[in-house]
Amino acid sequence: MDIIEPEFMIKGDYIQPDLILTAHRRKHSLLLDFKSYQLKDHQNERYETAVQNPDQLVLRGAVQGVPPDELSADFSYSSFRDLADAHDLSEFDFTTVQFEAHIGDANLRIEIVGSEGFGEPDLDDAFPVEVPHGKDIPTDYYPFDAEDEDQTQFCIYMLNAAIQLANDYDSDPFNVDELLAESHKLWDSMSEEKKKELRTWGEKFLDKYNQKGLDEHLRKVQKDDQPAWFHKSSSFQALRNKADEFIADLEKDLAQKTLGEF
Amino acid sequence: MPPLNPTDRRELYEHFQHVIEGTYDQLLEDQKLNYKQNMLKSFLVETNIEATSLEEQFEHVNVEKVDYSLFEVLIDTSSDEDEEEILTFYLDSQNERFWTFYSIEKSRPAKDAMEDLIMAERSGLDYLWFPAQLQRYFTKLGEFQGAGINYDAEDVFSEEYIDQYLPFGELSIQSSGQGTSWLLDALNDADLKRFMSLSSVKIRREMEEGVVIERIDNNGRITTRGGDDIQAHLSFVEIIRELYADLIRGIEEEGRIGYPVREIEAEEGERHSSGQSIEGTPIVINLANTVENLKEFADSFTSATKPLRLWGVGTWIADDYYKVRGTDLHNNDSFTLEIKRDWIRLYLPDDACGNTALRIFSNIQRYYDAEASFGERSDPKNSKVGLTA
Lengths: 262, 389
Description:
The structure holds 2 protein chains of 2 kinds. Chain A is built from 9 helices and 9 strands. Chain A has helices at about 40-50, 55-60, 85, 120-125, 150-170, 175-185, 190-210, 215-225, 230-255; strands at about 5, 10, 15, 20-25, 30-35, 70-80, 95-105, 105-115, 130. Chain A has a 7-stranded mixed β-sheet with strand order 1-4-5-6-7-8-9. In chain A, α5 runs antiparallel to α9 (about 230-255). The longest helix of chain A is centred in the C-terminal third of the chain and has 27 residues, at about 230-255. The two termini of chain A are about 35 Å apart. The model of chain A is unreliable at about 225-230 (pLDDT under 50). In chain B, about 30% of the residues lie in helices and about 30% in strands. The termini of chain B are far apart. In chain B, the strands form 3 sheets. In chain B, strands 1, 2, 3, 4, 5, 6, 7, 8, 9, 10 and 11 form an 11-stranded antiparallel β-sheet that branches. Chain B is of the alpha+beta class. Chain B has helices at about 10-30, 55, 105-120, 130-140, 160-165, 180-190, 230-255, 295-300, 355-365, and strands at about 40-45, 60-65, 70-75, 85-90, 100-105, 125, 145-150, 170-175, 200-205, 210-215, 220-225, 260-265, 270-275, 285, 310-320, 320-330, 335-340, 345, 375. Chain B has 9 helices and 19 strands. At the A-B interface, β1, α5 and α9 of A face β12, β13, β15, β16 and β17 of B.
C-alpha cells in the first residue's frame, strides 16, 4: 500500500485518487478511484495526464522509493457495478475492474471489465483475483466508511474510542472529532464530505451515549479507586452488557434520515 | 549468613549466594527446607514506568535506593484482618523495559504481592507471557528435570461452554525426574497435546560460574531450587530476559499496523500533509483446536477479567466470521480480533506494546489450545525462538 487519498497537482490540475498501490520491484504504480455511479469528464482527463506523466507522482511525493524517470503508471476505476455499461471510456486508455461478492467458490471476485487491461502484463495476469471462502479479507485496515452497512462497526469503534479517551485523559465529555480520530486511523486523510457524514453519525452516537447513561457509567469506572481489580472488572462487564442494547438502539437512530438528508 | 541489609549489589548477591548454597545442601540432605530458608525467586516484569514512581503509585509500597538502579522495595501486605506483614523485594531496574524483582520471602506471599502490584489498575507493569514454544526452548538450555502442565479453561470459559465444547475444564500434571521427558513424549503422541499447556519447566544448568537448578514459570518467575553460584543464576535470568525481549522486538517491528501521514507538494515548493500510507500486517494465530462457537469464545476472552484484562464488543461479519474490537485495559491499547474456526487475526496499532500480543497468544495456549501457533508470515524474524508450529 503506497498511499490512501492523496491530494496533489499534476500539470496544474488537481487530482485525488482513492488509493495508489506501487510495486517497487516493477517500478509501477496503480492509481485507483472507487466509483459508485457517476464519472466526470474532467476527472478522466486529469487521470490521463497523471498516467502520461508518472514522474510527477514521485516529484509531488505521492510515490516514494522509485526514481521519477523510471516509474510507469496505470489508472483504473473500480466499482461494484460494471461502469463500462453506463460510460464510454474508449477514448481513454483506462482499465475498469469490478468487484463481486460471493461468486461461486469465491468470497470475493475482482475482474477486469469492458477494457483491454493494464499497461503492465504481470498485472493483467493477476486478474481475475479470487478470495476463496475461509480466506476472508482483512477488515481492520479501513474499519468503517459512511455507508449504511458499516453502522455497526462505527458504533463499536466509537464505544472503544470513548473508553480509551476516558482512560487517557481521566475526563469526558469528548468531542466528536476526537472520538472519530481515535476510532479511525485514516480520519485525518478523509475528504471533507465524508468527514461531514461521519460527524453526523458521531453526534447521534454522543446523544445516545449520554441518553443511555454510558457517560455516567464510564465516569464510575474511571473513579472506581478500589484497589482490587474485580471492582473494575465488574464495572466493565456491566458496560459490555449494556453495549449490545446500546448498539442496536444507535443503529436505529443512524438509519433514520433527517429532513435535510432527503 | 550475613544480615540482609545490603548497601550495594555485591552484598546483596553475597547474601543470595548463601541462600542458594544453603538451599542446595539442605535439599540434598533432607529433601526439605528449614524455616526461613526460602528459595531465591526472580520475577521478570515488563514495565513502562520509573522505579521511583512505584512509591507514588502504590500507598503500600516503600522504595529505597540501594545502589545504581538497585532498589529495596518493601510491600506492606497487611489488611485489617491480618497481622502486619512487610515483604522485602530487591528491584534491579538496570534494564529500563524489563525489571527483575528478587525475593527470598515465602513463595505464596511473594507471588501474591507481585500479582497485586502488576494487576493494579494502570500499574504500568505486566508479567512476561512465555508462549509454549519459548517454554520448550528453555528445556534445551540445560538438563531437563521436570515440568508442570496446567490447562485452566475454567478460568476463562463458562461451565456450559466447557461441557459442550471442551474435554477438560482443568488439567494439571506435575512431573520431575528422568521420567518427565518420557511422559511428555507419551502425552504428546496422544490427542492430549492440545490441552498440555506447559506452566513451568525445571532444568539443571551448568555454566562456567557454577551450577543452578531453575524452575521457570510461564509468567516470568524463575525460582532457584538449588545450585552453587549466584552468578550462574544472574546470567540465566539475563538469557531468559533477552530471549523474551527479542520476541517482543520482533513483534513490535513486524506485527503492528501503522498509518504514516505523507507529505505532498501542493504548489511549487509548498508541501503539506495529505494522504496516508498503511504499513504492517496483522498477526495470524493458527489453531489446532477448532472453535465451535465463535461468539462465545470471543466473548469469554474479552470479558474484562483477569488474567487477560481485555474488553471488547463483537459482531458477525459473515456466517462463520466474527470480529471483536476491543481495548486492552492493562495499557489502554486498542486491538481487533477476527476469528474463524481455525485461525485468529490480531491487529495491533503501531504504538501498541508487543506484550499485548504475547499475553493474548500465551493465554490462548493456556486456556484453549496448547498447540496454537503463529502463522509463517507472523513469525518474528531475527528471534532465536520461532512461534510457528
